[in-house]
Amino acid sequence: MLTSYAAHFDTPAGYLDFARFGPPSRDAVAATARAMEESARAGHTTVDALMCAENTARDAAARLAGTDAAHTVLLPNASTGVFHAALGVREGVVLVPRGDFPANHYPWRRNAHLGRATPRWLDPAPGGGVTPELVRSALTDDVVALSVSAVDFRTGFRADLAALREAIGPDRLLIVDAIQAFGVADLPWSAADVVIAGGQKWLRAGWSTGFATLSDRALERLEPVLTGWTGVEDVGLFDGTEHPPAPDARRWSMTNLSPVTAAAFAAALELVERHTVAAIEAAIGVRIGELTETVTARGGQILSPTDPSHRAGVLSFALPGHDPSLVAKALHAEGVTPTVRTDSLRLSPHASTPPEATERVAAALSSLRGR
After folding, report:
1. What is the distance of C-alpha 10 from the center of its chain?
2. For residue 126, what is the DSSP state?
């Protein structure tokens, strides 16, 4: 466990549901409170001062993504970013995994209903993810983009972004939902044309936080359908005419975001920067390894990749002969919070998760023996 990192949080030891929601740090909570307090005492400089948090958060996100502020835009959530990307593709075929999270389906379905780009659904092998081989087998001349999650929400399968880029070639767009990876998995984000992430999960920034990065290729090819008044040139000029979209990533802005959530996001991103993604990832890997051994030793069937190079911070499993809801009840009794599915359970620790969490999982699963 990263002791210095863990010291910033008050999360219970048995909380293993970061793939669903990451309880924010005291830093993020304090930043939220300060921004709210300042807004309550508003003066002639207050709004402009509070709005500076957006620049701070955008700059931090850009640094972590290996790009710059001109190619980065803050968003209220990941879904907004996927809609921006999907509606920006005017025509052609986009490869999309059928088993991906629904938030990555509906934007492409809506775009198809509008008569624009058409999704072609990929079907990874059970337990597997989107591989270069799968993508190559689906490529045709009319494919213009691949939309993929950096880490699969069900199994924690880690996509090989560099290999996927090589598979689709330099002329197609690679659009990546990074919500299950950003800040906790050291991936080559520069391989993607679009990287989208929400801050409420592994970044631990709270809800209504997120960002996207756009490559020069994405800025050139994606039509800015959802550009709002804050995403155009001469934002402060209210002359009753339509202004052209901003030349950089700001074109994905629709309106001003909350400076309160931006302050929380900035605090969360800077905490990741200070402790480094590599150190956070390594700490999570230790816990995943321990949990894998514990679940396997008690008869659990691991549904996530077992090769560390193919997995991130998610461990999905089933306990043969036991309904997941009953397994969850045993885990709850030991103070463990998992994600509960109809056919499986998901454990997702963070760098602040102590060894005690694994001990609690062991006690819960052991209590089910003989039932």
Report:
1. 22
2. T
